[in-house]
């Protein structure tokens, strides 16, 4: 089958021809991939920074959407032909979603609701689950204030929408060009991160900070009130001080949360901005994403 991934020790992302996945074992399903998300995290399994069970030669990709082709023993929630989406890590078949077919665990998989096409579904799992799990960790209530750094990225834009829907007042850092879009998604204020003095341009006393831009945890911490919370997605949470709870977050697959997000996206209450590209452009798409060249767009690979 056609795929995009790594062949071995050279760790170069390239187009590949891979063997078909094995038949699904107990609790597993085989999915015909219709779209697969690309994110900066896809570079981590290559250098072993994130062990997702990749076994080269293998396709990359830990999220996607498609149709069920076969089900293993004990799987009762899905049948052949069902449309699904998933974030999967580790990969039970040793190979990922950037391929025509992928083997995944049924209990990490959500049904894809009518009205949500494969490209938008594939854009949702990692960024959506990250935003949702971060907000749950911060535990904010309606009326409280949240600072989000890199609000214009795929995770930040979803976090803004989810927080605003809960009645949380969101201030986001982003480029000036993204300000109008983020205000439309529910942000109360957008501050230009290009200004090196941006922390002085916002009113402090935030109840929490969600750190999505690397290097912003330290300048954000003084803006959080005593006893507040800070959650970093960039593995650089500062030491706790002034009673502030500070920690890093690492996403976990969660089918129930993903189903909730998919329903919101299908209903149009959660807006996504995917950029579909053919699988044949996978190596170039990966390079764009890991070097920050996606411009806030979520790149999604399609087999065609």
Automatic annotation (TrEMBL):
Lineage: superkingdom: Bacteria
Enoyl reductase (ER) domain: residues covered: 8-300
InterPro entries named among the record's database cross-references: ADH-like_N, ER, GroES-like_sf, Lipid_raft_assoc_Zn_ADH, NAD(P)-bd_dom_sf
Family annotation (PANTHER family): PROTEIN AST1-RELATED
Protein's name in the database: NADP-dependent oxidoreductase
Organism, as annotated: Streptomyces siamensis
């Amino acid at each position: 089958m056609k795929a995009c991934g790594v062949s071995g020790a050279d760790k170069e992302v390239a187009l590949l021809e891979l063997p078909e996945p094995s038949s699904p074992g107990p609790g597993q399903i085989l999915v015909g991939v219709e779209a697969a998300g690309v994110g900066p995290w896809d570079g981590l399994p290559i250098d072993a920074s994130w062990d997702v069970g990749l076994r080269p030669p293998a396709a990359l990709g830990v999220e996607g959407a498609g149709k069920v082709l076969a089900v293993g023993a004990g799987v009762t929630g899905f049948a052949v032909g069902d449309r699904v989406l998933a974030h999967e890590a580790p990969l039970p078949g040793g190979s990922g979603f950037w391929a025509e077919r992928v083997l995944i665990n049924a209990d990490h998989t959500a049904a894809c609701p009518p009205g949500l096409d494969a490209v938008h579904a594939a854009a949702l799992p990692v960024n959506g689950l990250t935003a949702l799990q971060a907000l749950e960790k911060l535990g904010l209530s309606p009326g409280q204030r949240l600072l989000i750094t890199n609000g214009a990225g795929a995770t930040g834009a979803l976090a803004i929408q989810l927080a605003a829907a809960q009645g949380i007042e969101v201030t986001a850092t982003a480029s000036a060009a993204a300000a109008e879009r983020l205000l439309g998604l529910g942000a109360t204020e957008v501050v230009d991160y290009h200004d090196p003095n941006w922390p002085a341009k916002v009113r402090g006393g935030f109840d929490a900070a969600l750190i999505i831009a690397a290097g912003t945890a330290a300048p954000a911490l003084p803006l959080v009130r005593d006893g507040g919370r800070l959650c970093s997605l960039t593995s650089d949470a500062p030491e706790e001080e002034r009673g502030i709870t500070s920690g890093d977050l690492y996403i976990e697959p969660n089918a129930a949360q993903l189903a909730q997000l998919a329903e919101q996206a299908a209903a149009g209450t959660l807006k996504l901005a995917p950029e579909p590209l053919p699988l044949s452009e996978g190596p170039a798409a990966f390079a764009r994403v890991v070097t920050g060249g996606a411009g806030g767009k979520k790149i999604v690979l399609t087999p065609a």
